[in-house]
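INFO  loader      accepted 1 record
INFO  loader      residues=219
INFO  predictor   begin
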Amino acid sequence: MATHTTTDKPVLYSYFRSSCSWRVRIALNLKKIDYEVRPINLLKGEQKSEEYLKIQPFGFVPAYIDNKTGQTLIQSVSILEYIDETQPGHALLPKDPLERATVRALVQAVAADIQPVTNLRILKYVGEEKKAEWAKHFLAEGFKALEAMLQKTAGVYAFGDSITMADLALVPQVYNGVRFGVDMSAFPIISRVNATLSDLPEFKAAHPSQQIDCPADLR
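INFO  predictor   done
INFO  writer      dumping tokens
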């Protein structure tokens, strides 16, 4: 695990291609927060080091340290809500309770239903021979349900015409879909929203290819 000097900036323990870390990077960019990245190489098993397990007992990324309070937060959606509630700038959740619940449902459709069965530890357990087929199947199945949800909620973005937390969940998952060969043309709303978001500077800067731990051949 890389070592870094301590700063007053918030610290994000991240892996360049982790969709959960990616969500938080977008949020920090939208809030215009200067932060320090501490890469955790999941392929080398750094997430299971004794040092990191003291920070994140599950050995997952991301972990977020708010150096103003000294508190460490884990679980990407909780981190997103904390950042949104404590930092000024673009609001990631609507004010209306029903609209907030709707956005949260879109977020959890990705974070709780689609992403977990296709993350690295599950794919390792499935095995090299079957992992691509497994990921493609469950991603496509999840996108079908998400597309149906977006038929009722989408405007320019996943929920109406303002960027919300739902968009932060959507973009990394589409990347995974493309990576594992899902035919994204079957999901026109998801594809349209993703294309619009991917052109925004805050989203571009959060992309895996722009991260300090991205291998040169993937940049």
